[in-house]
Amino acid sequence: MLLVPFEVADALKLCGWISNAKDNYLWGGPAFDFPLTVEQITAHLAKPEVRPFLFLHQGEAAGYIELYRVSSSEYRLCRVLIASENSRGKGWGKGMISLALSVAFEDPKITIVSLAVFEHNQIAIGCYRALGFHVMKNETKTREFQGEAWILLRMQKHR
Predict the structure, then answer these.
(1) Are 159 and 111 in contact, with CB atoms under 8 Å apart?
(2) Are 143 and 120 contacting, i.e. CB atoms less than 8 angstroms apart?
(3) Is the overall model pTM greater than 0.85, yes or no?
(4) Is residue 19 part of a domain?
(5) Which domain covers residue 24, as residue numbers?
(6) Which residues in the chain belong to E strands, given as ranges?
(7) Is 146 inside any structural domain?
(8) What is the pLDDT of residues 57-105, one digit of tens each?
């Protein structure tokens, strides 16, 4: 398992991993319209606070994750995705997140890594808890997707 910098040339591959509007919203929230396009990804990657990574498993592109610089002491894990549904449930997400945490904490100024996750995404929440993240009870929000209210939880891990 390995994280490598995500390049604009990888954008078409990422677009192919998001096959429907629900998965697009689950992955990217309101930041991206479906269908996901190379242009949307390119514009997003141009933001200086975004550090995107491609996750490789046995040399093959298997996922995407990014570190978003919130402040001088905090990164936020964003847009976490294991590409193939057949590859989910095998611990790859935990491995990818662990690698991203290692990158984040290489910076001695980083003391917090946070994230936001939809409450109904219990598999992801279980993965984050197993890696030491805790729900921040007073920082929930609600987002709407196709008339449904989705509760958004904030979680964080300290160095």
Answers:
(1) yes
(2) no
(3) yes
(4) yes
(5) 2-114
(6) 2-5, 50-57, 60-71, 74-82, 112-118, 134-135, 141-145, 148-158
(7) no
(8) 999 999 999 999 999 999 999 999 999 877 777 899 999 999 999 999 9
